[in-house]
Amino acid sequence: MAGSNYRITVGILTVCPNFILDSITLDTFQGELVVHHSPDFDCFASIYLTKQLIENGELPEYYQLLVDYTENVDTEAE
Amino acid sequence: MRLNDDYIYTPFAIASAIEPLVEGKMKEFDYILQNLRVLECGVQLVEYLMTGLSDFAGKDRSFYNPQILSPGSPFDEEAVLLKDDYDKYKEDLKLCQKVGIQLPEVVNNRKHNREVDGLIWHKIPSCLLHQYWAR
């Protein structure tokens, strides 16, 4: 949601999808996706949303539910 | 997130079980390939969950709906690992020392200490996800 102060990658992606969309030229994504060792739920969700942005050019339906859930479990897991 | 004994197979728990399952199956591979496999399985889990959401409406359309990962899902192996591991954790718990620990906390720009629950293991845990269960 615009204006939200997310502490998770998946939240930042939804606020700034252009991080990914701006790397798509002539229908080709040129970039490198880097995740940390022992990928966690936030990594899984971030790569999923990135794939959606690359393949469809937009975020999927119900993405906000994914962001809210990830924010909840990821921040409480700290 | 509080653990509910009647429903341990949350999406987050299933996601936490992916890594130990992959490590067990790919012992002969290096950690980079293991990490890659964990990531692939994790993304498949999120794809499955997101597709499943459309089967529900209203308040039931939620990652907290137990039916979103019902038995027969592609993640039954992770569910079995969770069940076994939680049983081990409950046994481990009998040998743990439960303590209160003072941790610093900042509320409204003021520092103070808050007592939180802590567990001290006097031996190596037999369960794999002890950090997850302890939360």
Characterization of the model:
The complex is a heterodimer of chains A (78) and B (135). Helices cover 53% and strands 5% of the residues of chain A. Chain A has 78 residues and is mostly helical. Chain A has one domain (9-77). Chain A has a two-stranded antiparallel ribbon. The model of chain A has no long low-confidence stretch (mean pLDDT 86). Chain B is 45% helix and 16% strand. Chain B contains 4 helices and 2 strands; from the N terminus they run αααββα. Chain B has helices spanning 11-25, 31-53, 76-93, 130-134, and strands spanning 97-107, 110-120. Chain B has a two-stranded antiparallel ribbon. In chain B, strand 1 and strand 2 form a beta hairpin. Chain B is globular. The termini of chain B are close together. The model of chain B has no long low-confidence stretch (mean pLDDT 91). Chain A binds chain B through residues 35, 37-41, 43-45, 47-48, 51, 60-62, 65-66, 69, 72-73, 76-77, and chain B through 1, 11-12, 15-16, 19, 31, 35, 38-39, 42-43, 45-47, 49-50, 53-54, 61-64, 132, 135.
Question: What topology emerges from the helices and strands here?
Answer:
The complex is a heterodimer of chains A (78) and B (135).
Chain A: H1 9-15, H2 18-21, E1 24-25, E2 28-29, H3 41-56, H4 63-76
Antiparallel strand pairs in A: 1-2
Chain B: H1 11-25, H2 31-53, H3 76-93, E1 97-107, E2 110-120, H4 130-134
Helix pairs in contact in B: 1-2, 1-3
Low-confidence stretches of chain A: none
Largest sheet report of chain B:
2 strands, antiparallel
Largest sheet: number of strands, sense, barrel closure of chain A: 2 strands, antiparallel
Q: Helix count of chain A, per DSSP?
A: 4
Order of helices and strands of chain A: HHEEHH
Indicate the proportion of strand residues of chain A. 5-15%
Tell me the number of structural domains of chain A. 1
Element-by-element helix/strand order of chain B: HHHEEH
Overall number of structural domains of chain B: 1
Radius of gyration of chain B: 18 Å
- The strands making up the biggest β-sheet of chain B line up spatially as 1-2
Radius of gyration of chain A: 12 Å
Strand arrangement within the widest β-sheet of chain A reads: 1-2
Question: Tally the helices of chain B: what do you get?
Answer: 4
State the distance separating the first and last CA atoms of chain B: 8 Å
Helix/strand/pairing category of chain B: alpha+beta
